[in-house]
Design brief:
18 helices; elongated; 14 strands
Length: about 450
């Protein structure tokens, strides 16, 4: 139940420390033992996932001073103090200053475990409340960032909020223009890492010969022209999020070096033998199937499996057409503000053209069309064919239905059974509609 929560045990007596550590490990608890308060204090921040157990009398910072320092960081973090001197006055003072409980030496293993389990339960409930409150607070915010009421977008927003604070790396799949970097930024902005940097790198845009220097940094003299130390982009993201876009374009020899960073969580700047520890979450994005590339030996399988932990699939715009009116209106209003122009009215005929378009450029293309629309240069999807007669409602419905059927047959390589499952149609009904629109499954294979 509490396996994910940590116990920071501070005890300067090696015998007592080792005995207490062993008792907690035998109880199945996750314990980190330290001989000084200074060592433990480095690990403590707001919403620290665990509790602290500390002796009162310590070299350097005392247990009472540690309690005070912790309460300044997180007033609700449970701190259990231990003393071997039976000082009742000290115990009362500690409880008044916010100590969760007080244990007197010598204590039994059962007594120690019992008090710690109660503190862990208290901490677990509090962290759960904080997480729920943050999700409720962020819910409205993420809906303003990732627009759309379609089921796929609701699922994406919910998943982002669910995994935003997880330490695991994330892999985002999506066609060009679907908003992969926006999703990566949401993962960062709605997590506890939002106070640190979000650093984005396009793997296909940095020349291979300077990739290491840009990403890992370098020391003076590491190569010709390296006159001063440069902090790499991944080190700049320490404490925050490092976003690797188009990771499928990363050369194999650089994939090896990235894999080492992901596994060890440290880097060595070019020209240096010193390791720099990193606390960074890596989010990678790809428009191609990395597993398929791995099978073709075009992408390292070990790197793929290292990234393939939390996976988000962004749907293309053609698969969430119901979001087009909301997105287009939002982009039109944003463009009108940016260009200081009035927002033009979208006619029903123009919206029908937008709904029927294939959107190969996805949301990015839609935003471009909205900008052109505001600037009075509407064209492309908003430009009806010359001499085109007005379509009746039945003709518009038939056209849209045919487009959807074609799309699913194309997505599933002409498989009628799979298209039926997605469209929610009986096989006989789909065959009837295919005959109506002169569609042949073999043409999509």
């Amino acid at each position: 139940m509490f396996n994910e929560l940590k116990i920071l045990l501070v005890e300067d007596d090696p015998t007592v420390r080792e005995g207490s550590e062993q008792a907690l490990q035998l109880a199945g608890l996750n314990v980190l033992a330290f001989e000084s308060a200074e060592q433990a204090l480095k690990l403590i921040g707001p919403d620290f996932p665990g509790i602290v157990v500390s002796d009162v009398r310590l070299p350097g910072i005392s247990g009472m001073e540690l309690l005070g320092a912790i309460k300044e960081i997180d007033t609700h973090l449970p701190v259990i103090l231990v003393t071997g001197h039976g000082d009742i006055t000290m115990a009362v003072q500690a409880m008044r200053q916010g100590a969760y409980d007080f244990i007197e030496k010598p204590y039994s293993s059962d007594q120690l475990v019992e008090v710690i389990l109660r503190a862990l339960e208290t901490r677990s409930l509090l962290l759960e409340v904080h997480s729920l409150r943050r999700r409720l607070d962020d819910g409205g915010g993420i809906e303003a960032r990732l627009l759309g009421n379609s089921a796929p977008m609701r699922d994406i927003r919910r998943l982002i909020l669910d995994v935003a604070d997880e330490p695991a790396d994330v892999l985002i799949y999506g066609d060009t223009g679907t908003g992969k970097e926006m999703v990566a930024r949401c993962l960062h902005d709605f997590s506890a890492r939002r106070k640190h940097h979000f650093v984005a790198v396009n793997c296909g845009a940095i020349p291979e010969n300077i990739f290491e220097s840009e990403v890992f940094g370098h020391e003076p003299g590491a190569f010709t022209g390296a006159q001063k130390r440069q902090i790499g982009k991944i080190e700049h993201a320490d404490g925050g999020t490092f976003f690797l876009d188009e990771i499928e374009s990363l050369p194999l020899n650089l994939q090896v070096k990235l894999l080492r960073v992901l596994q060890e969580r440290y880097i060595e700047r070019l020209g240096s033998n010193s390791a720099v520890a990193l606390d960074v979450r890596v989010v990678a994005a790809a428009k191609l199937d990395l597993e398929e590339l791995s099978n073709q030996q075009k992408f390292r399988s070990d790197l793929y499996y290292r990234l393939n932990l939390i996976v988000l699939h962004l749907p293309p715009l053609r698969e969430r057409r119901e979001d087009i009116p909301m997105l287009f209106e939002h982009f039109v209003l944003a463009a009108a503000t940016r260009y200081n122009r009035p927002a033009p009215i979208v006619t029903s005929a123009q919206m029908r053209l937008l709904m029927a378009h294939g959107w190969p450029g996805n949301v990015r293309e839609l935003r471009n069309i909205a900008d052109r629309f505001v600037l009075g240069m509407a064209g492309g999807p908003l430009q009806p064919a010359k001499n085109a007669a007005a379509l009746t409602l039945a003709e518009q419905v038939n056209g849209f239905e045919r487009a959807l059927i074609e799309q699913e047959l194309r997505n599933h390589a002409g498989s009628v059974i799979e298209a039926c499952a997605v469209l929610g149609l009986p096989k006989q009904t789909l065959y009837h509609k295919m005959q109506k629109y002169n569609l042949v499954a073999e043409e999509f294979r």
